[in-house]
Amino acid sequence: MAVQRLVVAAVAVALLSLVLNNVAAFTPSWVLQALEDGRKRSVGLWKMCPTGGERGRDDLQAGRKGQGTHRQCESLGWGSEYAGYQESRSTVKLQFDMMRACNLMATVALTAGQLIFLLGLMELPFISQESQWWEEAIAALFQLASFVLVIGLVTFYRIGPYTHLSYSCYLDIAACLLATMAAAMLIWNILHRRDDCLAPRVIIISRSLASPFHPRLDNDYVESPC
């Protein structure tokens, strides 16, 4: 049985969601924080980079090279507490730890959905496109990715007055929307196919079969969508 176009389209949308989710995770531009001394820094899930500011320009004019804007990015990990001006360290720690966990869970779910789709194309004995759970498992994994991304993004509804969301956060919002779209496409396809199976059967009698004196050379077959 050929793979339906809607399933292929949903998997392609989920693949784009997976790419955007990983780009958002490894770019240091989740939030743009302002510090007490006027400097600014860009903080991501796993990396933090200074973006310069008034103090950076003063240091550059004073000949203090290697500081200010010339500082290299720093790696972040679980439990990092890099808060901006008038931000709570515990709140920032909770937000980024939650988002890291949700990002990893979404990556695993989207990757598992892609692998199940590829295994179905290989027509293995234990998993195939005709399996009842094949498409449902892919839809469930894509929906799980969307759900956990929503949980992680909701934690950033409250940020400091001098902190702004940056493009990495918006990339993850797009990844969440694409994962939701992929899951919705598969769920709609599953429900539509079940509606076809539950529809009343129609029996069509051919004229050649109804005529007792007509030679019955060929039989007519009707393929069921189920």
Helix content: 40-55%
Q: Helical segment tally?
A: 6
Q: Report the sheet with the most strands, covering strand number, pairing sense and barrel closure.
A: 5 strands, antiparallel
Strand fraction: 5-15%
Radius of gyration equals 27 Å
Label the overall shape. Answer: elongated
- Distance separating the two termini: 12 Å
The spatial strand order of the largest sheet comes to 4-3-2-1-5
Number of strands: 5
Q: Structural class of the secondary elements?
A: alpha+beta
Q: Spans with pLDDT under 50 lasting ≥5 residues?
A: 53-70
Q: What's the pLDDT, averaged over the residues?
A: 76
Q: Keywords for this structure?
A:
single chain; 226 residues; alpha+beta; 6 helices
How would you describe the overall organization of this protein?
Helices cover about 55% and strands about 10% of the residues. By secondary structure, the protein is α+β, with helices and mostly antiparallel strands. A 5-stranded antiparallel sheet has the order 4-3-2-1-5. It contains 6 helices and 5 strands, in the order H-E-E-E-H-E-H-H-E-H-H.
